[in-house]
Structures
1.
Amino acid sequence: MRLKDKVAIVTGSGRGIGEGIVLRFAEEGAKIIVNDVNELDAKNVVDKIKASGGQAVAVIGSVADRSVVQKMVDTAVKEFGTLDIIINNAGITRDVILHKMTDEQWDSVIAVNLTGVFYGIQCAARVMREKGYGKIINVSSTSALGNAGQLNYSATKAGVIGMTKTAAKELGPKNVNVNAIAPGMIWTDMMKNMPPEQIKQMDAMLPFIVPLNRKGSPQDIANLALFLASDESSFITGQIIFCDGGMKM
């Protein structure tokens, strides 16, 4: 198993991409801290992991709260003895055209998608620096390159790229790898809940905007995250890997 006895935190892992990552990691032997703001979702994922013979603990709360992020790290160390991997995946959208965007829509996205990632990097790094080992993986987005109606979201995902590269430079000497994944169109509940007409329009455009001519799945992201979290990627750091079917190449 590629992550046997490794301890991993995955934020926003109650559903979607985060859930796909923790289930894949558990298959590969990792011990997991599952985090989500939705207690039922988080506990359901923990139950799935335990039912398949894995080990997992839920920590409920928003990554916009530093104390919640610190609790994840403390719980990892208390329950499993250490922390090897953190996936800063939690994110929200508050999409609206820029001239109509409210301060709340801006501030809430910044708090979760940018400040929450900062908390995750910083709290995990304090453990990883001491042990001389760690894998930090941040989830950015193809929207980091700009997307109409997502000024707030795009700003945070571009910010994640800058944080990733800076953290990689600072933590590299301590044998901590820091990389980011930038997903494209991933078929999650967030996308499935779009208006049917919007989904229909998106599907019609798919052959023209995604060379591989399909939407991605959480498993596509999970497989990439697994590689970056494993020792197979030990000489890779500071990289932003687009997992988007070629959409932004």
2.
Amino acid sequence: MPELGKPQNTIDIIKKYDFRFRKKFGQNFLIDTNVLGKIADSACIDPGDCVLEIGPGIGTLTQYLAERARQVVAVEIDPELIPILSETLAGFPNAEVIHADIMKTDIRELAEKYNGGKPLNVVANLPYYITTPIIMSLLEDGAPVKSITVMIQKEVAERMQAGPGGKEYGALSLAVQYYCDTEIVANVPPNCFIPRPNVGSCVIRLNRYAEPPVRVKDPEKMFKIIRAAFNQRRKTLANAVSHGGISGGNVGAEGNSAGTSGGTVGRERVTEVLREMGLSETIRGEAMTLDQFAEFSDRL
């Protein structure tokens, strides 16, 4: 099969199957061999690895991955692409295509079936409309994944790497940085795709930590606090958390004098904890580090 990274070969396949791009799937096919090689190389695939590719499209990146990995499992949601993939990947017996929605797919089951239960390398050119849900699902659900190398919207990549104080910094920044070390591998302009997107793109690699960089007693509670803090960025942390329905943990009814009501944390308790930490009572979530959110959560 001709190399699909070359624009004319991609155009020929699209014409042959009379394929129509569908906006609901956010389809943009890569047509730059340099970028494709960069993605495949930055995924650091060993010959014995099993790669999970999300949204293979017509198989452009899949070809590069199959040349490097022992096994590629490509999950594609669009039924119109399945017969195309049967042709474009015919020369790669180590590439398995599964017609499914990745958000409804059991990653553990795939790892067990294709990789003996060992963690998978995830590689993808992700649809921009569902980038964050897919990445957070992979991280939060405890899926057996050791690295994630993905093409995403440049703005989202910048948010993942952002630090306190900037407008890009938010719940996504903290969540990704809790689970992974991040590295932007390449910036990719719109002319590297068919059709051209309206925004710039980035290839970013997320290396999953064996242990999170901060210790927190209850990560789920910490992320509830983080989401509350950024749901309304202009609110102070005290107002955001006290109105966010955050549980007071072991405070219970006896803690009402400390500012709780019905088991939820009240403003008085939040400001008390901020004072204990040496922080301003008017601090906003965007000014707090991951370490500070962890300590704040534990103290509550």
3.
Amino acid sequence: MAYLGTPAATADIIRKYGFNFQKKFGQNFLVDANILNKIVDSADIQKDDCIIEIGPGIGTLTQYLAERAGQVAAVEIDKNLIPILEETLSGYKNVTVINEDILKTDINKLAEERNQGKPVKVIANLPYYITTSIIMGLFESHVPLSSITVMVQKEVADRMQSGPGSKDYGVLSLAVQYYARPEILMNVSPSCFMPKPKVGSAVIRLVKYKELPVKVENERKLFAIIRAAFNQRRKTLANALANASYALEDEKGTVKITRQQVCDALDQMGLSQTIRGEALTLQQFASLCDIF
């Protein structure tokens, strides 16, 4: 089977099967061999690696992955693509196609079955509308990962990499940076896809930390505080936390943080009582959480 990473090859296979792009699945297939090679190179794939690919589409990137990795488990939600994948990947004995919704797939079980629980590498061209859900699902369920290399909307990639004080800095930035070191590898033009998306894309690599960069007593409470801080990001941190529409939970039940408690904690940390959440680092949020 010839490589699919060109507009002509992709158009041919789509015509052959009468495939119709599904907007609900956010389907945009890569048709640029140069970008495909760069993604595979950037992911640092070794012969003994187990790759989990999310959304293989017609198998364009899967072909490149299969030639580098020990094995590839490709999870595809669209049942209409399964016959196409059976053809385009027929020459690769190290690829397994799984017709499931990645958000409902037990990836821990998949890693255990495919790689004896050793860290896997996740690679994907992600639908924009569920990018955050997929990435945070991978981290929060503590899937054994070494890295995630994904194509996402450029704006989302910028958010993942942003630091304090930036307009892009927020809950996603802090959540990603709690678990991994993000690095934007390249920007990708809409012209590299079929059909062309309306927004620019970027490939970002998230290298999972072997040890978390901050220590915190209650991870759940940390992220509740972060969410509350950014739900009203133009307010001071003291007001945002005091006005939080939900209580912050810990093992003893729910607690309500008062404005005075936040001000006292900020004093203890040597920070201004009028500081906004967008100015705090991950380490400062962790310190604030432990004080509470």
4.
Amino acid sequence: MILGPLADHPGLPIAAPSTALEGNRSPVVDIASGPLQVRLAETSADIDAAQALRYRIFYEAMGARPVSGMAQARRDYDGFDALCDHLLVLDHSRGGGADAVVGTYRLIRRAAASQFGAFYSEAEYDVSRLIAYPGEILELGRSCVDSGYRGRPVMQLLWSGIAAYVFHYDIAVMFGCASLPGTDPEALALPLSYLYYHHLAPPALRARALPERYVDMRRLDPGAIDPARTLAALPPLIKGYLRLGGFVGDGAVIDEQFNTTDVCIVVKTDLVTEKYSRHYERKSKDTWAAA
């Protein structure tokens, strides 16, 4: 799952992230489209709303098993939440407060991981090659969208928000664990094999599942795979990463708590920032032309 909770770090956050507003400057992310807005969490109430949405999606809708304390609080949380940035999509037509939050993503940069002592993915993967990569890196996780908002507009806003964040912090590489439904590798032989043979990361960016959790992705012969049909059947989030030129690490990991099989996704951000730059170049030209 992107990304499941850490059982040994319970507790709701007591402070909001510090990077949503930097001094008196403009917000790092603030994009509107009609009643929809994407921005970073600015208060503890914002984070609580994201945790409530995550709980509704992961545990109530998808049947994940909450660890102690989560079911009573009806919140998905762990020790990263008070240290990282939370990207939110809000629908202001639903009013204010928690009801307005309809999508979220959790963003962990080097500083937050250093403060915590690790990236979240290190519970499943050896990401030392990614950590050694020059420049800023970003771990993406806890992605979820309200069931009534899974169409193109909200997903586009989430990606626009990530692109703005990547552009602002000059992120070189982003990564995270993406999920396939179910915990039987044989039932997932086709997508796992396809991802390994067609999208394996180059050595310098290749995370590897920890030895005790490693599941070989090479389940089928390459000739038995129809690449176009297999790609079309992948979960939308994984397809989105692959369309950005994403890669997968070596080895899958079974997540019994979330009833999923995880793969590590790695994306060099060149294409993301290029698309974002072109968008804002067009926006600037349109504004100039209208003046």
